[in-house]
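STRUCTURE REQUEST FORM
Protein name: Putative D-tyrosyl-tRNA(Tyr) deacylase
Source organism: Dictyocaulus viviparus
Requested output: structure tokens
Priority: standard
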Amino acid sequence: MDNLHNKSESAAAGEVPESSLHSHENTEQVLHAANCATDEIQSIALSDAGISRQSIAEDLKYSANMSTLSEPTDLDKNPAITEELMDITESNEKDDSIVCSPSREDLGVSTPTDQGPLFKTIPQDRETPASTATKKLRGRKRKVAEDDIVVTPTKAPKTPGRWKNGNLARVYNAKVKLSYADYVSLKVGDRVLSCGEGEQLGHPGRTTTKKPRRVDIVEDEGLKVVQIVAGGVHSALLTIDGEVYMCGINEQGTVPAIGVEAEGSTDKFTKVELTNEMRSQGKIVMLAAGASFTAALTDKGSVIVWGNLRDTSGEINVHPLLTKMKDHPVVLIHYKKRVIVKIAAGENHLVMLEEDGKVLTFGDGKMGQLEYMVDEDGRSLILILQDKRRRDIPVKDIHAGGFWTMLVTDDQVFSFGLNNFEHLGIPIKGEAPTDASMEDKRELRILTPSVANAYLGRKWTHIDGVQHIIARDLNGEVFGIGKNTDNALGLGTWTGNDDSEHWKYTTLERVQFPPEAGKIAGTTAKLACSIAWTESGDAYAWGCDTSGQLGLGLKDDDDRVVPKPQKITSAHLDGYKVISASISDNHSLFLAIKK
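Status: completed
Returned output:
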């Protein structure tokens, strides 16, 4: 399984001296001045506030009525974004001014020519200029929120429209405070089942099972499991006390469990022993797995990774951690630097959501799944999503699979990565070849975060897949988009290789379940195969069953294509409710509790 990824950490922000701030009373006067009806009144009010308008005259002159500054924009209506704070300072007060944020030139980022959302890549080794060093406060002190300030830059930043030439700065504070508790499962299972092929099933002495079969060690040792993760060649279980158990092929550190030899394998779920350094990062509360790597999130916000991240050529070495993580688990993100609240994995890339709504990515990015171009040193991880007016758009959720990434904000979905079947909800530009034998020379990658129009209008809880995507919304409805050969979307419309009409869908199509299924609780999908489970505890599967991963008990002479959702049954599921599932290319895992 060939796959992809890379990057590292970025610049630390400096403290802001309170001496560079105006008092609350002065700020009110400034805002009052900005709302005055005429230019003359503005001059008087600004003078009363004790603030020079030397450098802002041109910016205020564009309109006699500045009340428009207080009118809410589309982003202002977003509850995650607070009221704008406008602070005007003397252009000649260089001693008390600091740079609130580096200019695009300082960051080494070119100014975009388009007006769409953009991501800035912030280099890790960029230091704050000496002239911006903080000073001790003198006089009256007041408590100031770290992000709740605006000061005059030593060099006016480039900004669009009327903000381009003056010293008038605007900051929209996201005020987002996310927590891992919003994303982890609260349900504890007492039975784990698996089906498919390989040592990653966790059944000692058995490498094939066509229906879900219970994993003995869970009940024999009384493990309380909160999450199951099916990787490409491995499986992982997370217990309520933060312990990780793994089995499968130890391909360059994929399964660093106790007693597993390098380049060896194990068909028994075995505990992963972490060092004291790893344990100091906090209790593990979430796992994510790719083709042959695993990532773990702790309750403190650190991210630990191990295994093999590779690209289509089989290996990537742009970051030193990519080599170290093959030998043993390593800390990718330290909670003292950044606090991560959710992780998601594709085949060979990792996506991380920070508590303030920022996003970090790591691994192979040749298909655009990291958004930024892959650099040689791999040190830039953090991405900042902004609108055309450079206001931060906080991300509320992340999803990843195959060679793509999706970011969810309050009212939009952004996608990027490999889009060869238009499953990212964005049309491919250009005309497709009329003959299947002709080379498709169109750009099939989305290299910058773009609005995925097909996904707008719904609140998504699950988004997963590779060449096709299965998504579940907050109402429990399930939709599919992308490649539909082998009826991967569960629509039952594909009739065979000669079907040129139903082999792909570029809009989200509703997946229909039997009436008795009830509300769908969750979904999981990989290459041409999908599984959904219901609130009542049943599981349904559809797509192409290549190795028994659908758990339907198909025999060798049965049709491997399951066109529509079909209920999974097993003697080992009798008396149990499925509360979660995770599918990979060759096997599946199920987490269940007693009814």
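Reviewer notes: The radius of gyration is 27 Å. Residues 470 and 480 are 5 Å apart (CA to CA).
Form closed.
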